[in-house]
Structure formats: C-alpha cells, structure tokens
Amino acid sequence: MRAEYQLCVSRPLAPRARPFYSVPMGSLVEVSIRDPERALPMLERYFPGVAMSNPHGNFALELLAAEIAPLSVVRYRLRSRDSSSSADLSGNLTFGQVEGGEIGLTASSEQIDTTVPWLFPDERVHAEWDDVTITALTMSKAATVRMARAQLGSDTAAVAFTGRSPIDRSRARHWHSLVEYTRAALTTDRSPLESPIVLTSAFAHLVGLALETFPNTIQDAVREQSRPGSAPTSLRRAIAFIDENAHLPITSEDIARESRLSIRALQYGFRHHLGVTPVGYLRRVRLDGAHRELKRADPTTGATVTQIATDWGFANAGRFASYYRDVFGVSPKRTLDS
User: Fold this and answer.
1) Average pLDDT over residues 103-124
2) Residues 6+ apart with CB under 8 A from 144
3) SS3 of 230, please?
C-alpha cells in the first residue's frame, strides 16, 4: 500500500539550491513496498544513485519521510536476507543511526562504525544488511554553515565536518535522542515546527549539537584559540572581568567580548583549564559575593536572604538556597542569623 500526501504549511517554504529529494516541500511520504523494482525509485528519492543486489523474495521496504526546509528526515526498514546496496550522498549533510537490526557500511574500503550515529561521507557508501531499520536526518549544508558561523560569531569561519563518528559515547547518546525527537516532531504534530521562530530554534539546536558531537573545523579552531600558552591570558582576562562585574547583569556574550574569544572558545577554555563553564564560574563568584554580604548584614535592620540573593542575580530563592548549601554547607538564613 502506498500513501503520499502534502501537508498544509503556514507559509511557502523556499526551495533548496540542491534538493535532497524530489517530493514537495513540507511533504510527508509513507510507503510499504514488497517489490524490489518498485522500491528502488522510491529509495532513489532519498539516497541518490542507490543500487541493490541480491534482494530476495521476502524483500520489504517500509518508509516514512518528512521535510520542512532546511530539515528532512527518513526512517526506513529494509528486509531481504544477505543483501547489499550502495548510494552516493555527495553534497548532502546526512546523519544516520540504526534503530533496529544491523548494517555494515564501508566507504573507500573503510568500515563505518554503525553502533553509534554516523555522518555519511561525501562519497559512495556500500551497505550489507538483511533486516535493518535506520533513521537518516539531512540538514541543508548552506543553512548549517550560516547557523554555525552565527553561533561562532564569525562570517568567514571555515565550517566542515572532519570525522564520521561522534567524539564520545555520551555525545552520541544525546545526538541520537535529539534526532529521534526531531523525527517524531516532523512526522506527527508538525504545527509547532511550522512557526519560523520554533523551526529556527530547533535547527539551531541541531546544528549546535552536531558541532559538539562530530569532529569539525570549528572544534579545531576553538582548540587553537584555547591552546596552552594562549588560553591562560584570555582566561585571566575573562576571570578578571567576571570578578569585577559579577554584581552587574553580564552575560556570556559580554565575557567573550572582553576576553577576545568566541563564545565556544571561551566555553572550551573554562572547561579545559578550570573544569567549569563560564556561567558556572560566574555563579560561584556571585555566591561568594552573596555570602560576604550575608555575613555582614544585620537581620534586625530589615536585611533578608531574598533581597541579598536578588541583588546578586538569583531570582529564585529556593534555587539560591540549594546552590548556597552545596558550596558553604549551611543555609543562607543561618549565615544571616549568625
């Protein structure tokens, strides 16, 4: 059975320079096919140049695909004993992850690790499978570069992925979860994603996590900015700025600007050299300031924990008390009353 229909969207979606597949923008496609000859042109829509060999009589393709530019996602199940296939995803930025079964992928005779999410290489990929379910997420390359440069704070930064596998298992799990969430959003209740604001935010989240998960030139640039010898100078500048201005409503952008680093380089430098984030360090400085003020304050003159916490940027008194107790071992009220 084959069902194909186009969803109504709140506004026209601009076509891509090089469409990932040839169905209408804002469309949803769902098919179940048991004839390999009929399945091949359907797969061709999503995996250019696809070819299959040895499909057997028990062959089946179940596919669900959706797109709202600049994102597209396809989940498919291929079943056919001891079969193989190949496709050329050159020019696309496509991430894959196995949802069930197993698949062997090679490119240029190099095995791709499919036990974790992977980035399809910019060349022909060969696959061996007999029953596998895969989710593939594609992001517009041009839109990804624009978003990455905006997040880095540079209009000219080189943006390219340099590795196919996640840099560690923890990031791999987070990426897998985000892709699954995106797939569900695109293929079920799409109305929130049809809002330009929500879609932009979701795409920014995907790009940001992709840059944290898979090796890329931006990570290399951040490490270069934060390398031993140069990072301490920048960090000292950032630390001094925080220490002097913690009582003011400063942000990560302010700290990065004063330290002459990008936000990502700033974050990497703090984690690498101090083991905390810039926001975490700022919070600790503010806690120290609140602690000093609580010790000096006199509750009989009207001083309160809530007012002092607010003065130091803690709008939630309960959260402030939790942070304070973790650092100083007592409640802020006890410090004030002592």
Assistant:
1) 92
2) 70, 93, 159, 207, 210
3) coil
Give the pair of three-digit tokens for residue 133.
């379910």
Quote the number of domains for the chain. Answer: 3
Q: Are 292 and 269 part of one and the same domain?
A: no
Banded model confidence at residue 117, pLDDT cuts 50, 70, 90: very high
Domain that holds residue 325: 282-337
Pairing of strands 2-6, 51-53: unpaired
Flag whether 221 is in a domain.
Answer: no
The Cα–Cα gap between 126 and 88 comes to 9
Q: Where are the alpha helices (DSSP H) in the chain?
A: 36-46, 141-152, 169-187, 196-213, 217-225, 231-245, 252-259, 263-274, 278-296, 305-311, 317-328, 332-337
pLDDT in tens, 168-190: 888 899 999 999 999 988 888 66
Q: What are the phi and psi torsion angles at 63 (to 5°)?
A: -140, 135
Q: How far apart are CA 292 and CA 308, in angstroms?
A: 10
